[in-house]
Amino acid sequence: MLENLPVVEGDPLWALLHQFNADPRSQKIDMLVGVYRDETGQTPVMQEVQKAELKLTKEAASKSYKMLSGNLEFNDHITKFVLGNNSPRFDEQCTIQTVGGTGALRVLGDFIAALSPQTVIWNTEPGYLNHRPIMEGAGLKVESFRWHHNGGILDIEQCFEDLAKAKEGDVLILHGSCHNPSGVDPLIDQWQQFIDFCVAKKVIPLIDIAYQGFGVGPEEDAAGLRLFAEQVDFMLVATSCSKNMGLYCERTGAAMVLSSDKSQHQPLRTLLERITRANYSMPPNHGSAVASLLFSEPEAWLKELSVCRNRINDLRLGLGKLLSEMGADQSLQAVTRQKGMFSMLPLTAEQMTALREKHAIYGMLNGRINIAGLKQEQVSYLANALIDVMK
Ligand code: PMP
Description:
The protein is of the alpha/beta class. The chain has helices spanning about 10-20, 45-60, 70-85, 100-115, 130-135, 155-165, 190-200, 220, 225-230, 265-280, 285-295, 300-325, 330-335, 350-360, 380-390; strands at about 30, 95-100, 120-125, 140-145, 150, 155, 170-175, 205-210, 235-240, 250-260, 340-345, 360, 370.
């Protein structure tokens, strides 16, 4: 068997990260990994998470198996968080807890493949590095459509030029907010255009919302998804508490299937559970137990989340202002319009290499940077370095 072992290229991110760790320059900046960092460069455990963990330890509830759908209380909470507390669709969904947002995507991929193995998945380009492998891993075909912007505003005409080839029954993946890697989110009327497109072409939306609360706010960041939920009968949602609760390694997420035909709910749930049963049986409980406590009294957690969001937005504004004062190209200044942790710098691979070699600033070769990797005191250093490598 091992004679067939393929030579598989490793993830370029980890190679760069090793390089960063070995770099002796004190001014080095890590804008590589997709985790939130505070002003001291840490990815802290949120205070509300710590409180919840203490409470759970004290109560020492049983470790007995949960349901195949995971923690049912968590499922209800996260569904309301995503759809809105008073959403009429709450009664028209089937949600299961998953192993993070990645697990949600894979479960939904397997779900699509079980129902219709010929389905084509439409994925943004640039896009989240893992969407394609997850969907291809589920045996599905993936096509790309361009996700470009002019000054931070999505070029939706280009999207539709590429999506013209989409057929009835295909699935369109959209990022609920804080598009990874571009930070470019549709305006609300552009969301409506995507809805009109899906309705007219009978294309199924799959909204991946991994950063709810990291853009403008938890409600605002779900506005496009909720508009979809108001207008389409059938849609899929993948969500995650990795970022907005900082529960990364606890692998806490959910997959949702919305269908206005209630008679389908039981068979839908049975299929979702059969998929997880054959993979990992059921998801780990701890993160979902913590998340349930945060969702049940959300004020303090939402305040902590707003601190993360405001820090990122302040960094974006500060960087954009400086770049504009320095007369930088408009394409660079779009950083202020973009949302969430990521932006794609309009730099070539050579310019990204120069940024790393000359200035010790580490981003991905395709231009992706994590704004949260930056400290306030480094903003001007970064702005000057950008101007330098773009000369
Ligand atoms: N979707 C997108 C767009 C993401 O950026 C990520 C995380 N990087 C995920 C899903 C997966 O999140 P999780 O860590 O919860 O698996």
